[in-house]
Design goal:
This protein has twelve helices and 19 strands. It has 385 residues and is of the alpha/beta class. It has a nine-stranded mixed beta sheet with strand order 11-14-17-16-15-18-10-1-19. Helix 9 links the parallel strand 8 and strand 9.
């Protein structure tokens, strides 16, 4: 029962999911991104809560293994695999009924041939055609969508369930970012029309990520794919303040709190160094609290200096380099407010008592809340409230 743990505030998760449902049309499907263990929040828990909240029945993973984990834990709803896999994984796609994002003539043919050898009857495996409208990652070009849809349609055991693209700068507020996002949307519309002109039903069309859900309702199409907003954080520049400035209201609550406890309090004289590299020296006589959490738990080394943790409603700075399994906090001399085994909050929602969020840590480490959350390792146990 290690004291370093991630506490999942399930009511906040429900709240965020309801916010998403309130901001899309009733007929628009919601596909919740539960990849990377739901951004560190427990994928099985998220999926179960999501289907109870607004009847969400679409989930997105990044790997076949992530999809299998959901299936083996009772998730029977639609699961899409956003990243490409290798031929050795194709049979598992079919066995566990996972909907692969695919593109490219060779890839589609290999997937189709494996499906032919796997299915002995007329069953067809659903797939999504991925379209690259500007992300520069995976997907056919819009002008290739018709030909690739024909390949899928002509397959004996594949079915074109839908089409999707991904925006790369929809989380930016500049004129350039919003203009490029609109261009991506237009390219996707052309790709969809290209498929229709071939006499093929494009199925469920999807391009709305977290930022577009909030800021571009005209781009919701048939299905949106919320990621970071599910877990209570705004995507980059599409902040709560920005949304209010453009007369849009979208409230979110962080879902996860990272906490640990004080396991030692040591008196350090003025001039004594703390941790590896001797990068920190005590300015005066003080007390140092030792915490059993480090970068192997996801508390990234680059968060110090700068990181402040919350103990009994007050902030205290982490001092010296964060170690693999431990870090140290300067609590000041003879501090009666901090005692051995007191709870320490690294970050979390207001309900947890934390005065710091994952966004605050991200700014210190010159990264994004996504990385802070997904860095939490498996040895950080998850506790659900």
């Amino acid at each position: 029962m290690r004291c370093t743990k991630a506490v999942i505030y399930s009511e906040n998760l429900r709240y965020n999911l309801q916010q998403i449902r309130n901001h899309v049309r009733p007929q628009t499907e919601i596909c919740v991104a539960v990849k990377a263990d739901s951004y560190g929040h427990n994928a099985v828990l998220t999926a179960k809560l999501a289907r109870e909240t607004g009847g969400i029945n679409w989930f997105a993973v990044a790997t076949v293994d992530e999809g299998i984990e959901l299936r083996e834990n009772g998730i029977t709803e639609n699961i899409v695999v956003l990243s490409l896999c290798v031929p050795e994984e194709f049979p598992s796609l079919f066995k566990y009924n996972l909907i692969q994002f695919c593109f490219g003539k060779e890839y589609i043919r290999d997937l189709s041939q494996t499906a032919d050898s796997y299915f002995s009857d007329g069953k067809r495996q659903d797939v999504f055609l991925a379209v690259d409208t500007g992300m520069g990652r995976i997907g056919c070009y819009p002008e290739e969508a018709g030909d690739e849809a024909v390949l899928i349609s002509n397959s004996s055991h594949l079915n074109l369930k839908g089409m999707a693209t991904h925006f790369c700068v929809s989380d930016g507020t500049s004129f350039e970012s919003q203009t490029f996002t609109y261009e991506q949307y237009q390219r996707f519309c052309k790709a969809v029309e290209n498929v229709r002109q071939r006499g093929i039903d494009p199925g469920i069309c999807s391009c709305g990520n977290s930022a577009a859900i909030m800021n571009n309702p005209e781009m919701h199409f048939d299905m949106v794919r919320p990621g970071i907003i599910t877990y209570g954080y705004y995507p980059d520049q599409i902040t709560k303040e920005y949304l209010h400035s453009v007369h849009k209201d979208f409230d979110l609550k962080p879902v996860l709190a990272l906490e640990t406890k004080v396991v030692a309090i040591r008196h350090f004289p003025k001039g004594k160094s703390v941790s590896y590299g001797r990068t920190y020296f005590c300015d005066e006589d003080t007390d140092i609290a030792v915490l059993p959490i480090g970068y192997a738990d996801g508390l990234l080394r680059r968060f110090s200096p700068g990181l402040e943790v919350t103990i009994n409603g007050k902030k205290y700075p982490v001092c010296g380099r964060i170690c693999m399994d431990q870090c140290m906090v300067n609590i000041g001399k003879n501090n009666l407010d901090v005692k051995l085994f007191d709870k320490v909050l690294i970050f979390g929602p207001k309900e947890s008592g934390a005065l710091t969020t994952a966004d605050d840590l991200a700014k210190i480490g010159n990264t994004i809340s996504y990385e802070v959350l997904t860095s939490l390792s498996k040895r950080v146990r998850r506790e659900v409230l």
